[in-house]
Amino acid sequence: MRKSAVLLFAVILLVACTGSNDVPSGILKPVKMQAVLWDVMRADAFSFEYIRRDSSKNTEAENVKIQQQIFAVHQTNKDEFYKSFDYYRTHTDLFQPLLDSMVNKANREKYKLTQKRQTVKTVE
Predict the structure, then answer these.
(1) Is residue 42 part of a domain?
(2) Helix (H, G, I), strand (E, B) or coil at 26
(3) Nearest to residue 67, comparing CAs of 78, 56, 59, 58?
(4) pTM of the full predicted structure?
(5) Is residue 11 part of a domain?
(6) What gap in Å lies between CA 123 and CA 115, rounded to an integer?
(7) Number of helices (H) and strands (E), helices first, in the chain?
(8) What is the pLDDT, as a whole number, of residue 48?
(9) 56-89 residues labelled b (16+ CB within 10 A) or e (exposed)
(10) Overall domain count for the chain
């Protein structure tokens, strides 16, 4: 009887400790999703800012090529990424911290770039 109670307690503890932040299989984990989303957003910005200025290039086709490269680097694919993106959009308790972390990363990069530019100006 005591073994059953200990086993039941262990199972309940195990279930309770697996947080609601776990994502189902087939969905990118938050850290990986953040990395892929970061690169996809940067690719979109690059396409919008630079590729669209080149009239000989199809911006949308070039963006698709860049995204395929991103997915290859991160060992995922378009379907898994967009399925994961839809999942996170509907689970704001997971998506909000992911986005907040990305904003912080962008701010850090912007700060580093600003510091670098100021250093270059003072050297000149």
Answers:
(1) yes
(2) coil
(3) 78
(4) 0.71
(5) no
(6) 12
(7) 5, 0
(8) 83
(9) eeeeeebbeebbeebbeebebeeebbeebbebbe
(10) 1
> pLDDT 10s per residue in the chain (124 long)?
544 433 434 444 344 444 445 889 999 999 999 999 999 999 998 888 877 777 878 888 888 999 999 999 999 999 999 999 999 999 999 999 999 999 998 899 888 888 888 777 676 6
Amino acid in the structure at residue 24:
P
Kindly state whether residue 34 falls inside one of the protein's structural domains. yes
Contact yes or no for 105/38 (Cβ under 8 A) = yes
Q: Which amino acid is at 4?
A: S
Q: Token pair for residue 120?
A: 């270059």
How many CB atoms are closer than 10 A to CB 40? 19
Residue carrying structure tokens 């912007």: 110
- Return the ∠ at Cα 1 (arms to 5 and 14), rounded to 5°: 20
Place of tokens 């970061």: 38
